[in-house]
Amino acid sequence: MAARQEHDAGRSGAADGRSTRWAAHRVRRREQLIDAALAVLEEDGPEFGLQQVAARAGVTKPVIYRHFGDRAALVEAMGDRATNLLMARLMPAMFAERPLLERIRLTIEAFLGFIDESPRIYRFFARRVPAEGRDVAGVDKAFVAEALTSLMREYVLPFDPAAARLAPVWAHGTVGFVQNAAEWWLDSRAVSRDELADNLTALLWAQVDGIARRHGVVLDPHQPLTVEGIASLLGRRP
Q1: Overall CATH class of domain 1-69
Q2: Does residue 130 carry a pLDDT above 80?
Q3: Which CATH number fits domain 78-235: 2.60.40.10, 1.10.357.10, 3.50.40.10, 3.20.20.70?
Q4: Which of 103, 122, 139, 223 is 20 to 30 A from 40 via CA?
Q5: CA distance 169 to 211
C-alpha cells in the first residue's frame, strides 16, 4: 500500500512538473509572439496581418490563434507590452534621486527616445480609436499624470497647502503639453531631438521655479530638491 502511494505521488509530481514546464513554455511563446507582432508593426505599419507575425515568429497562424484567439486580442496584448516598455523608461527617470532639473530632462529624454525609436508603434496606439479596443494611450497618460500629481503634491504642499489640490491640473497639463510637442516633432522633425528636450526642460523648469519664487524661495536647479530641503528654505525666507 505504501509503495502504491509513493508510486502515485511520484506520478503526480511528474505531472505537476510537466504542467509547470508547459505553462512556462506557453508564457515564453506568448511573449515571443507579442515581440514579433510589435516588430512587424514597426517595420510594416498598422495594416499588418497575422501571417506576417507568424512568419516573423517562425510559427504557423494557428499557433497565434491558439494563444490569442484573434487579431484584436493580439493587439491588446501588444498595447500592454508597449505600455510596459514605455513605463520602464519613464518611471526610473521620473523618480530618480537626482536634482529636479535633471529628472525633468531625463524623463523627457526617455519619452522622446521611445517614440523616436518606435514611431509606428507609438502612432498606432496613440491614434487608435478607443472603440476598437482599450485606449492604451489614454491609460498611459492617466498613469503618468497620476504619478506626476503625487510628486507635485509632495513638493507643493510645503509652499502652499491650498495650491496642492491643483496638482492634477498641472500634471495633466504637463502630460498634454509634452505629448503634443513631441508628436509635432515626430511628424515635422523641425528641430533636433536634443533641441526639443532642451526647450521642453526649460519650460517645465520655469513652471517649478516660478511657483517657488512666488512664495519667496529661490531653488538651485542643480541641487537635489527634497521635501526637507524645501521646508528648510521656507524657514530661511526673509
Answers
A1: mainly alpha
A2: no
A3: 1.10.357.10
A4: 139
A5: 14
